[in-house]
Amino acid sequence: MHSFGPAYAQWGRDCGSDILHATVFGKSVIVINSIEIATDLLERRSLIYSSRPSSIMVGDLMGWHWHLALLPYGKIFRAYRRLFHREFNPRAVMRFRPLQLKATRDMLQGLADSPDEFFDHLVHMSGKTIMGITYGIDVKSHDDPYIAAAERADASLFAAGRPGAFYVDFLPFLRYLPEWMPGAGFKTKAKEWRNHADAIFNLPYEAAKQDYLNGTSRVSFISQCLEALDKNVKDFDEFVVKGTAASMYNAAVDTTASVVKMFVLAMIRNPDVQEKAQKELDEVVGRGSLPDFDHESSLPYVSAVVKEVFRWQPVTPIPFPHMVTAEDAYNGYRIPANSLVIPNIWAMLHNESVYPNPSSFIPERFLDSDGHLDPTVPDPSLASFGFGRRICPGRYLGWSSVWISIASILATFNIEKAVDTEGSPIEPSSECKPGIVASPLPFPASIKPRSAVALSAIQAAAHK
């Protein structure tokens, strides 16, 4: 899946066009390689470009019909979006900062205690944050059943959600084959994977609802929505609350952790960047001190590092496709109704005319000559978080979680190549798991506290 982005980009260069067309099993597929075309179509014409194709495998057989990312554009989708905006707009998400800080600082303690398990610590941090915010559930152990359920669900959804992953989405009659027939193995997988979808839709919600009814719930998205329903708020119903929560829970755990894993890889390969970011943190926050959200505006280089992580290896290089619901025309091209429209995020963020030397990790590209963030350089989050009415509604929360995680790790740890038994450096692989989300496969790293003072700060913060 992750090779599709570069392949589509090369296809576009070969054809001399940033908008491409193919027919797959009679289905029209449009690939967009430029942010300008994506903006023109997916944002300015969002009324007809905001739906999703129906997926027999994911929606019908696996039971993901409730997920925001897969809903067709319509009444239920708009209800989800209104609820998301109400609870996760830029001002509203600030109330979650204490929880984000707690999860981040617990992660730092985990890195200090068992640095070789940094993948697990990053997933645990992401899960702890989103479970607390969404359901008011305090995740403590690394084998927490809710995080494990989310990881299983993510793996199945991201595998099945790849365009062309299963023929049944292009040849619908295959759904009627009995499981024992050759070629019907997808039905056995779907039955198993449906259990994962049902688990994340039902289990955490029922636990949070029971806490609410018992009067023991923490303040969370669910508790506030249930309180509103008790007051007969008519803007949403329980299904919308449940589906919105599960969509957020499913989407956030793997994506946030994957971005920070990419950051670790980038620091191993670019020690000069790490050194510059640490110098800025030492000057602004103080050596051995932990950054807070209030420091963000005073840390432009750190913010540039975060932007470059999003750009360098986008975690959704080829996202779920849009579907255009009416025939359209663009720059002389006819776009048939019901075409799949795939924004190639990888190509947009590796456009050499916008981001020179795009394969290199260069945070300075986002800074002006005075070292301030340059507003004239396109922010990669404009593409990373999607377009139009399909833009990620949790983007403000996602950015802040990634920013505080990266700033905190830089302030307290040195990240270097691991060494083998003979003391030779190990070059980490950037290979990713197959699926919609580009999550790196495990790689070794040496992660050590920068100083005794930094370690003391980590320990003090973790025990508050």
UniProtKB/TrEMBL annotation:
The keyword Heme applies. InterPro entries: Cyt_P450 (IPR001128), Cyt_P450_CS (IPR017972), Cyt_P450_E_grp-I (IPR002401), Cyt_P450_sf (IPR036396), Cytochrome_P450_fung (IPR050364). Heme binds at residue 392. Pfam families: p450. Its cofactor is heme. This is Unplaced genomic scaffold PLICRscaffold_15, whole genome shotgun sequence. It comes from the Eukaryota. Pathway: Secondary metabolite biosynthesis. The lineage of its organism: Eukaryota, Fungi, Dikarya, Basidiomycota, Agaricomycotina. Belongs to the cytochrome P450 family. One of its GO terms (molecular function) is heme binding. Coiled coil: none annotated. Keywords: Heme, Iron, Metal-binding, Monooxygenase, Oxidoreductase.
